[in-house]
Amino acid sequence: MSKKKTWFYLFSAPVLIALFLVVLLPFFYGIFYSFTNWDGVSQSAFVGISNYINALKDPTYLASLWFTIKFSVIAIVLINVIGLGLAVLVTNKFKGANILRTIFFMPNLIGGLILGFIWQFIFVEAFSAFGKLTGIPGLGSWLATTNTGFWALVIVMVWQYSGYIMVIYISYLQGIDQSLLEAADLDGASATQKFWQIKFPLIMPGFTVSLFMTLSNCFKLYDQNLSLTAGGPYNSTQMVAMNIYNTAFSMNKMGFAQAKAVIFFVFVAIISLTQVYLTSRKEIEA
What we know:
This protein has twelve helices and no strands. The protein has helices at 3-33, 50-57, 59-90, 97-105, 112-134, 146-173, 178-186, 191-202, 204-219, 223-228, 240-249, 254-285.
């Protein structure tokens, strides 16, 4: 074995060991426990696929899944549209563009729980004060209803991730061959035509990456859900991650929660792989 390969395996080993111990081993253990009635304390017994059947019949789990799907669809569209719009804005040459990049990216630096509590203060205290000042009723109870709680989660998610997705789109916009844009200018193409006919097809790889990242982040959201609404009122804003957590640690049904998690994993994996496949085909066509 060459010295170069020796150093490669030496430095790769800790990462691979950590990946196995932290990700792969718990994952396969979770699949095993999903076929048991383990409660986290006592010895478990094999129950077959009954946990999976019960999960698919659980109305709270199905409701949280549907709520998560609705939230994810709207948040993914808004994050990518706004992120792309911000990227187009700051890649134009004008004074202050770099400052705007920093400002737009800053929300992503705030942790999930802290971000949720900040926005909880805004939705409760600031909205209530603004409602009293303007005479608009109901602003103080923004997090107390299902519809407004839903949009509160969307607002926070879009506010946090749009700047991050903007950075991805910026990298692809800046990688476009300027000679193509100059040729379009000579042909008399408008800014809109240049964007849709030249820029947009060439940034499709960035769209694939951004869509995959926003999809995974939206589906697995937990911290903002906890800090903003905690799933209320009456679990109507409970997302799948919170439903699985409550099943495991509030109801002490670890095996049942693992079955829910495996179903959710398969569901998200199918959607993610389908999305990557479809958008990758657009890259080839572009």
